[in-house]
Amino acid sequence: MNPPDWTRHPPALTPGYFSSITRSPREGLIPLDPALADCTGPVFGAGDIGPMDSDLIRNAAQPGAMALGPRIIVHGRVLDEAGRGVSGALLELWQANAGGRYRHARDGYLAPLDPNFSGCGRVLTDADGGYRVETVMPGAYPFPNGPNAWRPAHIHFSVFGLAFAQRLVTQMYFEGDPMIRHCPIVATLPSAAAVEALTARYDPDHDRPMDARAFRFDIVLRGRRATPMAL
Amino acid sequence: MKQTPSQTAGPFLHIGMMPDPARGVRPLSPVMPADPVTLYGTLFDGEDAPMGDALIEMWQIGGIWARTATDDQGRWRLSAAKPGAVPFVSLWIIARGINTGLHTRLYFPDADWASDAAMARVPAARRSTLVASDTGDGAYRLDIRVGGAGETVFFDV
Ligand SMILES: [Fe+2]
After folding, report:
1. Which of A115, B16, B81, B110 is deepest in the core (most CB within 10 A)?
2. Which candidate in A17, A101, A102, A173 is catalytic?
3. With an 8 Å Cβ cutoff, are B8 and A168 in contact?
4. What angle do CA B120, B124, B129 make, to 5 degrees?
5. Do B7 and A30 touch (CB under 8 A)?
6. Is the pLDDT of residue A229 over 50?
7. Distance of CA A82 to the CA centre of its chain
8. Beta strands, E only, chain A
């Protein structure tokens, strides 16, 4: 397994994001020799996914109802660092509703819940590493981090690749959102290129006309330290 | 191609990772060993406060996988296979405030952890942060400290 690329991932301690101050190891990570790397991990399959899991517009809705908000398609590929599609990767995603409110006991934001939206989805990548989900555009929401801090619209992703060492949790942002440059959590990223990599592009070629806009978000996991033959 | 950057899982990770089956998406099933032992402990932040909104995943040789959310007192509990030839289980911790998931290990006290190759890279004074204690009845306890005195060892896996 290639090592984590620390030019891409945020460091543990990022004082501008207050929660990191007490939740950041200070001793430094102990590097493991590549020979000690574990290239195994849990495997998930079609049996772990329900038929509605990738349709957040309807998977928590009353019969015949749909979630409120701008209808969107989020799609892309899961790849390794060599650009090969990762087939059978499991993506779990969660998000706020169109008003910026999470269906969670600890979210007290005053925007109302949507009775037809839970904000939970799941999808497996196909043979080429491709995935596609349908949802509504999440709203921005405030969070306690100084006098006035807001999250840009975002979708949380958890990714299982082929090895446990590839486990990734991240967030996807939307092209053109002015809140991105003000967000203390976005600002934990070490470079503008890293922010760019988390920003989904509007992709009109994949819109469903008169129905939903498409956004493209590719995810690159750590690859195997190997010749192309080895996979 | 360059790796997709990590971002914190935030405080609401339960929605996507521990979903309520009554709301449409069924939680992932753990892969349980035939003859399980219990692993448990408390997760603390760098000021000794329990972390009540974290998620811990476990991976063990033999395809054993499970996850749990910490409770409001930072407590966690998982089932693992009994210690065998490999003296540890891998753990991965995410939460609000953790920008990039933390990889650590739990070593079984009654296994040969002292000759493990990864343990050999850990300074001797910090090795005890990775070794659980046998609390009887097939249960092993390990408290995990993300910072502060007795900070747990985390690996750049
Ligand atoms: Fe969020």
Report:
1. B16
2. A102
3. no
4. 95
5. no
6. no
7. 21
8. 30-31, 71-80, 90-94, 120-124, 130-136, 141-143, 149-151, 154-160, 168-174, 199-202, 213-216, 219-221
**Shortest Cα–Cα distance, A207 to chain B (Å):** 24
CATH architecture of the domain with residue range A6-220: Sandwich (2.60)
- Nearest CB to B12; choose among A38, A94, A167: A94
CB pair distance less than 8 Å for B6 and A169: yes
Catalytic status, residue A77: no
Whether residue B3 and residue A5 make contact (CB cut-off 8 A), yes or no, is yes
Own/partner pairs for B141-144, CB < 8 Å, 24+ apart?
B141/B39, B141/B40, B141/B41, B142/B39, B142/B40, B142/B41, B142/B106, B143/B41, B143/B42, B143/B43, B143/B44, B144/B41, B144/B42, B144/B43, B144/B44, B144/B56, B144/B91, B144/B93, B144/B104
Query: Which pair of structure tokens corresponds to residue A182?
Result: 């003000």
CA A43 from chain centre, in angstroms, equals 19
Q: Dump pLDDT digits (tens) for A25-36.
A: 999 999 987 777
- Of A38, A171, A197, which is closest to B90 when you measure between CB atoms? A38
What's the CA-to-centroid distance between B10 and ligand 1, angstroms? 6
Nearest CA in chain B to A186: B7
Domains in chain B (CATH in brackets) are 23-145 (2.60.130.10)
Catalytic residue, chosen from A156, A182, A201, A216, is A156
Predicted model pTM: 0.97
pLDDT tens figures, A36-46? 778 899 999 99
Nearest Cα of chain A lies from the Cα of B34 at a distance, in angstroms, of: 17
pLDDT in tens, B82-128: 888 899 999 999 999 999 999 999 999 999 999 999 999 999 999 99
Q: Is A156 a catalytic residue?
A: yes
Is the Cβ–Cβ distance between A140 and A109 less than 8 Å?
Answer: no
Residues with CB under 5 A from ligand 1 (ion): B 10
Would you list the domain boundaries of chain A? 6-220
Two structure tokens written together for A120 = 């939970």
